[in-house]
Amino acid sequence: MDDRRTVRVSRYLSKHLRHQPERIGLTLDEGGWVEIDTLIAAGAAHGFRFTREELDHVVATNDKRRFAVEGTRVRANQGHSVDVDLGLPAATPPPYLYHGTVARHLEAIRAEGLRPMNRHDVHLSADRETATRVGARRGRPVVLSVDAAAMHHDGHVFHISANGVWLTKSVPARHLRFPAPH
């Protein structure tokens, strides 16, 4: 499977397992799972054919480990805008976590903190390198440090997804450390 096809299948899975399952007639269960055969049939019925082997390849090779397979089912590990309960237990975060963004969002973040926008949770990284890659998807990256220990002490709940993404409902601006202006 070439890289372009891998990206196309991955984007298709993301769109329909995280955001618009109903667009192709899918119903995710409460944990976000769907039968793989059902997903493949729905894709074919709506003009996007892919095989179980292609799905397995995307799951195995995705650098962000966005998807999980359990038996005959598949789901996205996080990033949903549709209502699902991933069943992730609360976890104690490391002292600091990181969030990648771009400069044009800094004014709003300073005023409102980090909000989940159209997703269920704010996504945070355990290291600066990952946060830098996340921010770079939308331009020149800016990495914010999150005082996760202070947030946890204040009662904020954290979860960690199967692919290592830290999730929380919001990050108040007082718990963010902004880089010095250039």
TrEMBL record:
Alphabetized HAMAP family for the sequence = KptA
- Which is a Pfam family this sequence falls into? PTS_2-RNA
This entry's Gene Ontology molecular function terms read: transferase activity
Please give the name of this protein. Answer: Probable RNA 2'-phosphotransferase
Regarding protein family, the annotation reads: Belongs to the KptA/TPT1 family.
- From the UniProt record, report the name of the gene that encodes this protein: kptA
- Key word Cell membrane present in the record? no
Q: Any idea what job this protein has?
A: Removes the 2'-phosphate from RNA via an intermediate in which the phosphate is ADP-ribosylated by NAD followed by a presumed transesterification to release the RNA and generate ADP-ribose 1''-2''-cyclic phosphate (APPR>P). May function as an ADP-ribosylase.
The EC category is: transferase
Please provide the record's keywords in A-Z order. NAD, Transferase
| Residues forming coiled coils | none
What are the EC numbers? 2.7.1.-
Q: Which PANTHER family match?
A: PUTATIVE PHOSPHOTRANSFERASE, TRNA 2'-PHOSPHOTRANSFERASE 1
Which NCBIfam families would you find in this protein's record?
A: PRK00819.1-4
What Gene3D superfamilies has UniProt attached to this entry?
3.20.170.30, RNA 2'-phosphotransferase, Tpt1/KptA family, N-terminal domain
